[in-house]
Amino acid sequence: MTTSEAERTAATAGWREEIGRRLLAPPSEHSGRALWTSVGVTLLFSALMLPYAFDALGELDTARRRWAEGVGTAYISSYLLFVALGETRAWGVRLLMCALLLGLGGLLVALMGVKNAWVLVFALCVIGAFARTVTAAGAVVVVVAAVGLAAFLEDSLAGVMSELILLATVGVAMILFMQLVEANEQLRRARDRIAEFAVVEERERVARDLHDILGHSLTTITVKAGLVRRLLEDSGQEAIAGEAGEVERFARDALADVRATVSGYRSVTLAGELAAAASALRAVGISARLPHAVDDVDPQARQVFGYVVREAVTNAVRHSRAARVEVRIGRDWLVVEDDGPGAGAVRMGNGLRGLQERVAAQGGTLEAERPPGGGFAVRARVPAGSGRIGTAHGGPQ
């Protein structure tokens, strides 16, 4: 691939990503709880509207009713398919489903008559659940305007005013409902993060106290015991010097245990490293796109991923000259990517090599590369449920 082809490919990928980011929310922004709550509300509304649908179909002639039943079946199937595919990362699929739902709904209204435009409520509800606010609001405006125009052309605008009000109010209500549910979900995530940070902070405080108070006292005891032992040995009191040596040995063992305990309390956590990364990037003026929570990550993989975040973000701050750093996570994978102007082959420094060894010790892989669009990316993957995770100690060199 030539340089110009690579640049065009990168530009196309960036354009597609920007459209998906602006039009359709990624899975991380609409939680499963919010999605299934909205689906449940929509299904309840569907059950309440079934008698009206049967009455509307009964008013049609045989041929038109058969067409309406076929289109209606496809409309409902598309709705259920959208529910199944709505959380996919492929924004193009979701955009296609939005267009398909609106198209089938519009065709069904054309067959059943504009007075039955309420059937478009289902499309607006599911679009409101799976699309960004701007897309959902645009769908509401387009549907209301199209139905109003059709009614105006048929000179029946007054007769369908209730349907127009229904479509507008239900569409807006679904958008507001999704925002409310998502706001509650974000509050829950924030509460969980605050609780986790509080635990980390308390562990750090206990570690400092152990190190500063108990560690200092044990060090003093060890030094004094050694001094007493040497004085007794010089004075020829070998038996008593032996007992003093035992005291010195016990004090050294206790000091080693305290240091090991402190080291354990200061263990790396993914949530803590993400918080530290946000502070570090903000301090140097680098824009950060970080996960809101680590709930979806395998608990046994969080520590090693914390080391990956620490090393990759540290490298970005020191060497990348980047304007943006993004961290993406999954159950068994993590990606840290920046948009720095680096060029040429990737060189694995001591830090990345040590990190690669740490990840490999957990049965995983770590790769560093320069994406086609530029920048630098570190990708780590650790098998979910690996029993070896968390056995290694220390940080990347």
TrEMBL record:
It comes from the Bacteria. One of its GO terms (molecular function) is kinase activity. Keywords: Kinase, Membrane, Transferase, Transmembrane, Transmembrane helix, Two-component regulatory system. Residues 300-386 form the Histidine kinase/HSP90-like ATPase domain. The chain crosses the membrane at residues 34-54, 66-85, 91-112, 119-152, 164-181. Pfam families: HATPase_c (PF02518), HisKA_3 (PF07730). This is Sensor histidine kinase.
